[in-house]
Design goal:
- Keywords: Antiport, Lipid transport, Membrane, Repeat, Transmembrane, Transmembrane helix, Transport.
- Belongs to the mitochondrial carrier (TC 2.A.29) family.
- InterPro entries: MCP_dom_sf, MCP_transmembrane, Mito_Metabolite_Transporter.
- The chain has ten helices and two strands.
- It is mainly alpha-helical.
- It has a single domain, classed as Alpha/alpha barrel (Mitochondrial carrier fold).
- Strands 1-2 form a two-stranded antiparallel sheet.
- Strand 1 and strand 2 form a beta hairpin.
- Helix 2 crosses helix 4.
- The longest helix is centred in the N-terminal third of the chain and has 31 residues.
C-alpha cells in the first residue's frame, strides 16, 4: 500500500503464538500443567508494536521503487487513453533517464512515515483485539472473527496513515509533471506542513474513505487467501513451515489481493493526487474516479500498475518477517535473557 504492511504478517505472528496452545490441546498436556506455571518472559506490547513498525520501515527501504512505479503507472494517461508509460519496465527506464538513480527513491521519507503510522497502528490494534477475543483457555478467535478484527484494524490504521499516504502519492507523482507544475516537496514533513498551510488540514485526509475501503478489501482478501494458500501448500507435503513457505503463500495471496484491491487503490491514488480545476475538484469521489477511468481510459486501466503492486507484496512480507525476527531475537538475548 502500497498497502503495505501485510495481513499475512499479523496472521503468521499470531499463528506462532497459537502453536504452543494447539500442541498442548493435541497432546493433552494442557490438563497436566501445574496450577501456576511460570510464564516465559515476553517483550512488552509497546516493544512489539515498535518492532512491527520498524520492520515495515526496513522492508519499505527495499520496495520503495516498486511503490513509485505503481503510483506513476496508475496516474499514467490520466484523462485520456494515451499512456505515458507502456509497461513497468518502460516506467523504470524513463524515471532513471529523466530523474537519475536517486529518482527511484523519491518519496522514501513519506513511505517510512506511512509505515511508522499505518503499520504500527494496524499491528497494535490487531494484536490487542485478538488477545481480547481469545478465550480464557487459550482458544483463539475463529476465522470469521479474525477477518473482522483484521478489517477493523486495517481501517483504523489507514485513517491514521492517510496524511503520510497523501504526501507519498504526491511526492512519487511529482517527477512526471512539467517543472512549472511540480509541487517540489523536499521531504514528508515539508509536504505535510505545506499541504496544511496551502490547502488546509482536511486535505491531509483527502481520499480517506477509499484508503480505508482499500484496507478493508486488502485484509478480507489477504487473510483468507494467505491462510488458504499456506494450508494448501503444506498439504502437498513439499513444504514445511519456514520462510520459503511464507514467501510462496504470500505471492499466491498477493495475486488475489492485488486483483481485488487495485480498482479501489487507483481511486485513492487519483483523489489524493488531484488538483483543483477552475476552483472545483477534479473528482467528486471514488466512484466518480472509477467511472471516468473506465470511460476515458478503458476498463482494464483499473488495474494499471498491477505488476509492481504485485511484485511488492511478497518481498515486503518476507523482508518484514526477517527484520521482525531479528529484532525480537536481539531483544530476547540482550534484555530478556540477560
Amino acid at each position: 500500500m502500497n498497502d503495505s504492511f501485510c495481513s499475512s504478517v499479523c496472521v503468521t505472528l499470531l499463528e506462532l503464538q497459537e502453536e504452543p496452545r494447539r500442541q498442548e490441546r493435541k497432546n493433552g498436556t494442557a490438563m497436566a500443567a501445574p496450577a501456576t506455571p511460570a510464564k516465559p518472559k515476553t517483550s512488552p506490547k509497546s516493544i512489539k508494536f515498535l518492532f512491527g513498525g520498524l520492520a515495515g520501515m526496513g522492508a519499505t527501504v527495499f520496495v520503495q521503487p516498486l511503490d513509485l512505479v505503481k503510483n506513476r503507472m496508475q496516474l499514467s494517461g490520466q484523462g485520456s487513453k494515451a499512456r505515458e508509460y507502456k509497461t513497468s519496465l518502460h516506467a523504470v527506464a524513463s524515471i532513471l533517464r529523466n530523474e537519475g538513480v536517486g529518482g527511484i527513491y523519491t518519496g522514501l521519507s513519506a513511505g517510512l512515515l506511512r509505515q511508522a503510522t499505518y503499520t504500527t497502528t494496524r499491528l497494535g490494534i490487531y494484536t490487542v483485539l485478538f488477545e481480547k477475543m481469545t478465550k480464557a483457555d487459550g482458544t483463539p478467535p475463529n476465522f470469521f472473527m479474525k477477518a473482522v478484527i483484521g478489517m477493523t484494524a486495517g481501517a483504523i490504521g489507514a485513517f491514521v496513515g492517510t496524511p503520510a499516504e497523501v504526501a507519498l502519492i504526491r511526492m512519487t507523482a511529482d517527477g512526471r509533471l512539467p517543472p512549472d507544475q511540480r509541487r517540489g516537496y523536499t521531504n514528508v514533513f515539508n509536504a505535510l506542513i505545506r499541504i496544511t498551510r496551502e490547502e488546509g488540514i482536511p486535505t491531509l485526509w483527502r481520499g480517506c474513505v477509499p484508503t480505508m475501503a482499500r484496507a478493508v478489501v486488502v485484509n478480507a482478501a489477504q487473510l483468507a487467501s494467505y491462510s488458504q494458500s499456506k494450508q494448501a501448500l503444506m498439504d502437498t507435503g513439499y513444504f514445511s513451515d519456514n520462510i520459503f513457505l511464507h514467501f510462496c503463500a504470500s505471492m499466491i495471496s498477493g495475486l488475489v489481493t492485488t486483483a481485488a484491491s487495485m480498482p479501489v487503490d487507483i481511486a485513492k491514488t487519483r483523489i489524493q493526487n488531484m488538483r483543483m480545476i477552475d476552483g472545483k475538484p477534479e473528482y467528486k469521489n471514488g466512484l466518480d474516479v472509477l467511472l471516468k477511468v473506465v470511460r476515458n481510459e478503458g476498463f482494464f486501466s483499473l488495474w494499471k500498475g498491477f505488476t509492481p503492486y504485485y511484485a511488492r507484496l511478497g518481498p515486503h512480507t518476507v523482508l518484514t518477517f526477517i527484520f521482525l525476527e531479528q529484532m525480537n531475537r536481539f531483544y530476547k538475548i540482550y534484555f530478556l535473557d540477560s
